[in-house]
Amino acid sequence: MKQLGLQVVRINVCIAFVLLCISTIQAQSFHLQSQYAKIGINSKGFITSIKDKKTGVEYCPKGMSSALMSLEANKKYILPVKAVYNLAKKEIVLTYSNGAIASIKAEQKQQYLRLQLLSLTKQSEVDNIVWGPYKTNISKIIGDVIGVVRNDDFAIGLLGLDDNTTSGPPTDGDMSFMYYFIHSPDPKKYPLPPHLKEGQVFSIGGDGISDVAFYSQPEEYFRMNYGNGAILEPAFGSSISMHARDRRKEQIIRFPAYPEGLDGKANSSRYQLVVPANAHFVGSTVAFYACPDSLGLKTIEKIVLNEGLPHPEIDGKWIKDPGAYRPDIAWWGAHDSLVSYAKQLNMKGVQDEGYGEYYPNPADRWGKRKINFRGSASLTVPQYGAIMQKEGIRYGLHTLCEFLQPGTSDVSPVPSDSLAIMQRTILTKDLSETDTIITVADTAYFNEFGGWEGNHTNVLKIGKELIEYNGISTTKPYRFLNVKRGFHNTARAAYKAGITIVKLQPNCYRGFAPDMNLQEVYADYYGKWLIEGGMDYIDFDGLESCMYQGHGQYSFKRFFRKLFDSYKKNGGKYLRVMGSAVGEGSWHYMSVCNVGGGDHMFSPVLNKWGIEGKDMRYVFESSYLPATFGIQSYQVDWSVYDAENLQAKSIGWDALYMLGLSQQTVEASAEKETIFKALRAWEDARVAQVFTKAHKERLKDLDYKFHLEQTGARSFNLYPLKENRFRDMPYSAAGMQVQLHNEFDEQALEFAVKVYAPKDSSITGLKIITGSGAEIIIDRKIAAGQYVIYKNGKLYVTNQGRKMLEQIPLAQQLKISKGQSSFKVQALHTGNEKVKLELVVPVIGKAEKI
User: Fold this and answer.
1) Which of 76, 137, 430, 484 is paired with 235 by a 20 to 30 Å CA distance?
2) Strands, DSSP E only, in 137-268?
3) Rounded distance, CA 36 to CA 289, Å?
């Protein structure tokens, strides 16, 4: 009986196990979860819930769902109709409306879900697989570059774990181009005017010549779009997605793919043939994370480390960690003082702008340009790079990435067969060396001018010859118009009917671009070139050269992976990368993106964001990148407070910049020593990470500047400073009386009056009446751009660089009382309506020990 009972128990256990197995492979709703979130998926394979496990807040829009993985063919989505989850195998099997079946590995990691496409039937009928798009009800912050959406509490995002899985939905060229969209991050603070609505799109500015002109809308609710990994969805919040393409298929695309109704202005769409690459969507893998926003960047870093993604480090810190943020130097002119300046400022990254734009050319790697000095002989780049490495300074050049210009060994006199193309056709008649009538099988899109950047360069390649043309006939026999043989000093030759002739893809400087294969050759070239030059910093201007092949972010990933592999293989360690733009394909590799510059980005003098700075701040911060002030060139007439404000706001906003320096400008500045000491104090404080989140919020305040004194290795005194600034004051006998406000205690008066007058002109004198009734007489000529300054109890006239020209005797020490007081400036003799004055009166508060 005991044996029979035992057998019955065993039979019941087996039945229960079989029932359990059956239950795990039937179509049914199920959940996947990480440490922070629980994801609900229904029996059709749609996400129906994204819930914060701690708070219970639901982030899936009410009544909506999102396909876990979609298929795409001929620009139409194919959605799943059935989902079966096998818990034991950690696999989800999706069945689609076209009968295709996908097997997805679904692993529940601590911080994220790891989803990998293992197999798919009917692959030939599919162009792309799409992770999502995943709908969320979050809309405050749209991280379009890397595909993350955020609010004050939570972040939801996707991270591609292989090179062929790239941001956003499938598009022609797999890129999203710049445009403005309307989105108020705070409707109460920035309400939309009646004529605008959330999600409305507008063309950027731009004249096709000036990058600055792209940025044309100063209002906070005009947001610049930079990618499509995350998209604002006004009806419910936002969506995020990634996709992987079958790149073995040849495509004809129209590129760029602008939002409906946008013409791109300076940049116009063109048809382009996209040559196949060896990449396929089976194996596509993503990390789907949902976590508190405060942990967003740390969660991404854990994914990066767990999955073996690029993790460049600087001084032991991941380059995306705000603790690793450091400003750099942009250098112009003779190099005698560069090392000295960099060490005084404690800035370790230098981009040599004075060397000029470097175009890669394997046949002549360095050209004839040298590193010049005033007091010694010139050096080669490798010689100077070796010196900089010994000094502990990361040094590099400004390059035009993959812009292959005429004269480059891969362009002329013998062009490479691996130049990127736009169109292809067949020669229908034999062509002699002297013929200029070239007949071909079809017109394709050879009638379009140049490339998408508005460049009217039209160049054909046949054999090893380049041919310029302008247009193609519209009736048979099709022939190219305005033909010029042997373009760029290439050799004319005879060709037989049936040979292929292509139109080359031009870059914006009327050169050309490599295809995907030649691109890797240049990535390897740069890795070796950097090591040879003793450089561990590179600025890739012209990063759009990775777009020309038509493979979008995949092209960027291929280029940067090869570059970093080559650099490391040849002995490099940390490579600091700057560039003209950042995308999902370069996000992991780029340390900084200090685009633009000057007041277009941020004015440290006026304490004001420029339009470009506002736009880039939103784009970068939204995707866990440092905001940027671009290149901020040291100004000869900066006060120490202006220079300090650059550092204070940089630290407050976690923003980076390049300090533009030249020996000529710095040495002409009277406050050089004071400014360098102050900048160094701020930099030491940045490195020591002494500023709390509360401190940074205060430093952001555009109503204040700040002064910092270093009292020890990790101790500082922080002073708030408020400027009374009056611009465009008239230079008249009656003068102008203004009201000063001092919210701090009574203190010694400080002021500066600058003269704005026609070039080479001057004024005859000034009379100043302070709030205490003191009259100050300056009876002498003061030239345009010069100052009258009162500081530290001394009154003096300076040149344009604030260097003292003459001290004016003053009988008393001047003070400014707390609260309101008056101040008047007028012409001493006769006025001049062409002259304007600027008055600045700073007041400073009590120190806070940090």
Assistant:
1) 76
2) 141-143, 148-150, 154-160, 165-167, 179-182, 201-202, 222-225, 230-233, 237-245, 251-255
3) 9
Give the C-alpha distances (Å, rounded to integers) separating 562 from 393, 517, 523, 567: 25, 11, 6, 8
Spatial CA neighbour of 401 closest among 546, 199, 592, 586 = 546
* 797-813 per-position pLDDT tens digit: 999 999 999 999 998 99
Inform me whether the pLDDT recorded for 700 exceeds 80: yes
Pick from 633, 667, 632, 645: nearest CA to 803: 667
Helix (H) or strand (E) holding 675: helix 672-688
According to DSSP, the residues that pair with 417 across neighbouring strands are: none
Q: Do 659 and 629 meet the contact criterion of CB atoms below 8 Å apart?
A: no
- Residue 574's closest CA among 554, 598, 586, 590? 590
Tokens of 222: 């005009």
Helix, strand, or coil (residue 8): helix
DSSP string for 525-541 = HHHHHHHHTT--EEEET
The predicted-structure confidence for 438-473, as pLDDT tens digits, reads as follows: 999 999 999 999 888 767 789 999 999 999 999 999
Structural contact between residues 540 and 403, judged by C-beta atoms closer than 8 angstroms: no
Let me know: does 168 contact 176? Beta carbons within 8 Å.
Answer: yes
- Residue among 314, 350, 335 nearest 537 (CA): 350
677: number of CA atoms within 13 Å, CB side? Answer: 10
Closest CA to 803 of 823, 783, 780: 783
- The pLDDT assigned to 25 comes to 53
Q: Report the C-alpha gap between 100 and 80 in whole angstroms.
A: 9
Angstrom distance (rounded) from CA 403 to CA 510: 9
Whether pTM exceeds 0.85: yes
Q: Any idea how long the chain is?
A: 850
C-alpha atoms less than 13 angstroms from C-alpha of 724 in its C-beta half-sphere: 24
Residue listed under structure tokens 């697989």:
129
pLDDT on residue 26: 63
Q: State the average pLDDT over residues 209-216.
A: 78
Asked whether the predicted pLDDT for residue 265 surpasses 90, the reply is no
Closest of 298, 291, 304 to residue 35, by C-alpha:
291
Token pair in block for residue 235: 């009806």
- Tokens 């230079």 correspond to 731
Specify the 3-state DSSP secondary structure of 676. Answer: helix
Strands, E assignment, 693-835: 705-710, 716-730, 736-742, 747-748, 751-756, 762-763, 766-769, 775-778, 782-783, 787-791, 794-798, 804-808, 815-816, 819-827
Could you please report the per-residue DSSP string of 89-142?
TTEEEEEETTS-EEEEEEEE-SS-EEEEEEEESSGGG-SEEEEEEEEES--SEE
Give CA–CA dist 842/412, Å, rounded: 60
CA distances from 190 to 280, 301, 530, 602 (A): 45, 33, 47, 20
Concatenating the DSSP letter of every residue in 535-594 gives --EEEETTGGGGTTTS-HHHHHHHHHHHHHHHHHHTT----EEEES---TTTTTT-S---
Cα–Cα nearest to 767, from 749, 780, 786: 780
Q: How far from 697 is each of 530, 617, 679, 701, 702, CA to CA, in Å?
A: 39, 15, 20, 7, 11
Q: Minimal CA–CA distance to 295: which of 37, 86, 503, 44?
A: 37
The per-residue DSSP string of 483-500 comes to -BSSGGGPPP--B-TT-E
